[in-house]
Design brief:
Blueprint lengths: L5 H11 L6 H15 L4 E9 L17 E10 L2 E10 L3 E5 L2 E5 L5 H21 L6 E10 L24 E7 L8 E9 L2 E6 L7 E9 L1 H6 L1
Parallel strand pairs: 3-6
Antiparallel strand pairs: 1-2, 2-3, 4-5, 6-10, 7-8, 9-10
Helix pairs in contact: 1-2
Length: 226
């Protein structure tokens, strides 16, 4: 039985697409690479799901989220289903790769982007715990690719978003909050995840030319273990 391997997809994708124009470009390229590596798989993009209310922190009167949501990429391979959420955040960069020019604009809201990435992990846990449109999920992945090294810098202990620190080695679990926006930005993770970054690609430019990838994987065993 063939098993989906996220590392295999990202390693191959980095050779064909070391850089993306946008997050949408990344999502489309990722889906195409999965189809190329796993031709027998069914690959779907932006699949809608009418979410359960999800995890509710006991300190909050309302659930953290309760709405229609989407998954970036759904892969059905053999008898297993895999979910992938993708984030692509850029630092300004202009470079030509082959005959294609990439003009990346600076992404702002770094604190919000940290929250959104970890919220993706929570969302994936919800789908695993409650199934996704009737599919039992074998494994799910939150992938973050960026050429902005700021995301890897450790946050000070008094930072309002220290819970969302994505520096290498940080463990993400339990209730995580932006203390300035607790009702807007709270994440609850049933599992325990250690943040790790690896080099995704390098492009021929003088600055911000290294792209890094962080992948958090979750499955039923991880959620139950914690």
């Amino acid at each position: 039985m063939e098993v989906f391997e996220i590392e295999k997809v990202l390693a191959s994708l980095s050779q064909h697409k070391p850089i993306f124009h946008s997050e949408k470009d990344m999502q489309a390229s990722f889906a195409d690479e999965v189809k190329r590596l796993y031709p027998q798989a069914k690959v779907e993009r932006e699949v809608a799901y009418n979410s359960v209310k999800g995890y509710a922190d006991a300190d909050l009167e309302q659930p953290i989220h309760a709405s229609t949501t989407w998954i970036d990429v759904l892969v059905s391979l053999e008898d297993a289903t895999y979910l992938v959420e993708l984030k692509y955040k850029r630092k300004a960069l202009t470079v030509v790769i082959g005959d294609e020019e990439y003009d990346l604009k600076q992404d702002g809201a770094l604190n919000d982007n940290r929250y959104r990435y970890l919220h993706d992990v929570q969302k994936l846990e919800d789908y695993i715990a409650n199934e996704f449109n009737g599919h039992k999920i074998a494994e799910a992945y939150a992938v973050f690719i960026t050429n902005d090294a700021e995301y890897q810098k450790e946050k000070r202990a008094d930072s309002v978003i220290k819970d969302f620190d994505l520096s290498a080695g940080k463990v993400k679990t339990g209730v995580l909050r932006n203390t300035n926006k607790p009702e807007e930005q709270t994440v609850f993770l049933a599992g325990s995840y250690t943040v790790n970054w690896s080099e995704y690609s390098r492009v021929p430019a003088d600055n911000s030319n290294i792209f890094w990838a962080c992948t958090i994987r979750t499955n039923e065993a991880i959620i139950r273990k914690s």
